[in-house]
Specification:
elongated
């Protein structure tokens, strides 16, 4: 409501009226955060979209779906709303638009040859003109995506900063991330590590580990806390409380293509998995502390899960 110049109690009354109008007109109200989650799920092909509320998922589908033929497309009204929010300097809108363009952009658009000939002044027609125009449209879409990503990062949207750091191989983008609002701190940690920002890599890996990401817990032990035996055991005990014993080997038989091996089918198989972590034992007093700290992490995680 601040964007409309209305604050305090008048703002509440206007909000109530807007909500009533939306309900009467059958309009869906969807947060930009939900749209970002939806687009990220679509881009990275996660097993399931990050929605526990099916009605909300349906609302996002309705808002984004244009004609039912392309889940990554957006209705003209919804796209216009995002673009208007971006023009007002909303970093989330810029980031959503960058993701939308990424999901709609071909990896290698065709038509470069004809596009270059057209730039040199050649008059094209027929199929050649079609290819040149298609390449130009894809090129403009990609430039638009990069522009929105850079602007979202400039406005310090955490996830946009991480994406920009990876895309442009520039760790300076990571320095703009403040707070713990990253959607995927484990991925952010990997990117920070690749770019040499090791302090940030450890910080974000720790956030992911404390949130119960077992791969991040293993990485804390093997990479960041390897010189602190007590911390390593704390992570081991925490993983055990989450149902994973990192001290045990975890291998499975797979085929050449990585699919699970089937004894009934037969043929060559290969082991895939991780070796159990081996740590020297702690003395009794430090071991007791490591157990208590692991239990505290598990309790905090349970509280967080219960509040969501």
């Amino acid at each position: 409501m601040d964007e409309l110049g209305v604050t305090d109690s008048p703002g509440l009354r206007v909000s109530s009226e807007l909500a009533k109008i939306a309900l009467d007109e059958g309009l869906d109200v969807v947060s930009i955060d939900s749209v970002i989650d939806w687009l990220l799920a679509d881009l990275y092909e996660r097993d399931e979209k990050p929605f526990s509320d099916k009605e909300l998922d349906d609302d996002v589908d309705d808002a984004l779906d244009d004609d039912g033929s392309n889940e990554s497309s957006m209705s003209k009204f919804f796209l216009s709303s995002l673009e208007n929010a971006a023009k007002r300097g909303n970093p989330k809108a810029h980031y959503a638009l960058s993701l939308r363009q990424q999901s709609d952009t071909e990896d290698e658009p065709s038509g470069w040859h004809w596009y270059e000939r057209q730039l040199q002044g050649e008059q094209l027609s027929g199929v050649a003109l079609h290819w040149a125009d298609s390449y130009r449209a894809a090129k403009e879409k990609e430039e638009d995506r990069v522009r929105h990503l850079r602007e979202a990062a400039r406005l310090r949207h955490p996830d946009a900063c991480v994406d920009a750091a990876e895309e442009f191989q520039d760790p300076d983008f990571l320095k703009q991330v403040t707070g713990g609002d990253l959607r995927d701190p484990a991925r952010a940690s990997e990117i920070a590590y690749e770019l040499g920002a090791f302090d940030l890599a450890r910080q974000w890996c720790k956030i992911a580990a404390e949130a119960g990401d077992v791969d991040s817990i293993r990485w804390m032990i093997e990479e960041f806390d390897q010189d602190n035996l007590a911390l390593c055991w704390k992570w081991v005990y925490f993983a055990q409380l989450l149902g994973t014993d990192l001290t045990e080997d975890d291998y499975r038989a797979v085929n050449d293509d990585g699919s699970d091996y089937d004894d009934e089918v037969g043929g060559p198989c290969y082991p895939e998995g991780t070796e159990g972590i081996e740590l020297p034992p702690l003395d009794d007093s430090l071991d007791a502390i490591a157990h208590r700290e692991a239990e505290a992490l598990a309790a905090a995680l349970q509280i967080t899960a219960g509040s969501q």
